[in-house]
Hints:
Elements: E1 5-10, H1 16-27, E2 31-32, H2 34-44, H3 48-54, H4 84-102, E3 106-108, H5 112-116, E4 122-128, H6 131-142, H7 146-168, E5 180-183, H8 184-187, H9 189-205
Helix pairs in contact: 1-9, 2-4, 6-7
Amino acid sequence: MANRVITIGRQCGSGGHTIGKLLAQRLGLPFYDKKLVEMVAAKTKLSPEFIRSHGEYFHGGSIGHIIGYGTRFNSGVLKTGSALTDQLHQAQCEIILEAAEKGPCVVVGRCADYVLAGKVPTLDVFIHSEMPYKIDRSVEEHSLERERAASILTRRDKARAHHYRFYTDQKWGDAKNYDLCLDSGTLGVEGCVAIIAGAYERMRQGT
C-alpha cells in the first residue's frame, strides 16, 4: 500500500494543530497548517490576515472586493470578478494537491480530506472533544477569556462547518467522512498521536 497523506479536521480547541504537528514529527513527514497560509499568500498575494480569517471560516455572501486588505493579483493567478473567498479556496486546493503529490505529509483543515479524495491515498482523521476540555486548552494555550471561550469556540466551529458544507456539500465532523474520529479530551494529545501513527503504519504496510 502506498504511503498516505494524513488529513486532520478538528474542532476549535480540541488540539488538532498540536496533534498534527507531533504526528508529523513522529512520522518524519512534512506538516502543513500555518505553513499553508504562507504558501497561499505567496501564490495569491492575499494578505495572511485575510487567509487566516477566511481560509476555513465561511462568512456568507460575496465579498468580491475587500477594503483594507490591499489585495492585488498578478501573474493571472486569481481572476477578477469572483468572490475572494472562492479564489482563496481554489488556491488552497491547488497548493494542498501539489503538496500531496510530492509525497506523504500531514495536512490540517481546509477541506483537505475532500480535496484529495480519489487523487492520492489518504488517512482522514477528525479530532473532537467536549467543551470543558476545549475551554481549558483555549484559555491555557491561546489566552481566551474563560467567560467568553465557549461562545467563541462555538461560533468558530459553526463557521468551519458552514465553510466545509459550502465547498464539499458534506457534513463537517460526520464520522462517515473520516477513517478515524478521536476524542482528544478522552484520549489525550499523545494518545491521539499514537493511534493515528499506528493506523498510518498499518495502512502503509497493507495490514
